Amino acid sequence: MANPQKENGYTSIANELYDAIIKWRFSSYEYRVIIFIIRKTYGYNKKGDWISLSQFVEGTNIRRTHICRTINYLIKQNIITKGGNKEKPEYGIQKDYEKWLKLNKGERSHHSLITKGGNKEKIPKGVIEDVKGGNLVVSKGVHTKDNITKDNITKDKGTSEQSSQEIKIDPINKIFQAFYDNGNKGINFGNKTERAAANWLLKEYGLERATNTIKYAMSLQGEKYAPTITTPFQLKNNLAKLIAYYKRENTNNTIII
Question: pTM for the full model?
């Protein structure tokens, strides 16, 4: 039975700073990283300390790739500080919370998990809301990147060599843009098979849900046993594998990410 005692160690933090952390809208990844940094600094009466990536992984139970991404977001928001050198980076909390910055929608990424309706199964927030009969249902209310305006778009020429700002932005092209923005710079916007798959994704899940699923799937590329999903057609045909991968990777994870 757990029996934590203050005498065995505690972390002292100013209530004002603690209140600021509570009120800020962090993703669950960000919140866990911040709490860990506080534990490693204020928990030892330090303002900053060298923390290796392996320590972050062990202390937060978040995978290394997500740790790196989350740290970068927090640095961009000026919520955590980074000093030292490349071999021994030193992290700390920017306690002047009035200097914290809110990033634009396109500068953030959400790979957190939620617990649905008391069910202990962990589900990617902004990606998978529910799993019913092998279907992937993506939750609403998550930011998506949409930085293209009527002033900087041109007619769709259907080539993979065009930049995302040269492609006429209709809903189907926005599906392609999501793949482009998240790493597939060679995607062919004019491929009929891929466009049919993109259209299916739109009809089944809507633009916002589909694009957030794309972000999640693309973030897994290179991970061992992760399904290869870099195009609309691959996403359509690998939804079940994506769900199976996630459930397998998080079976023993007792912490909500």
Answer: 0.45
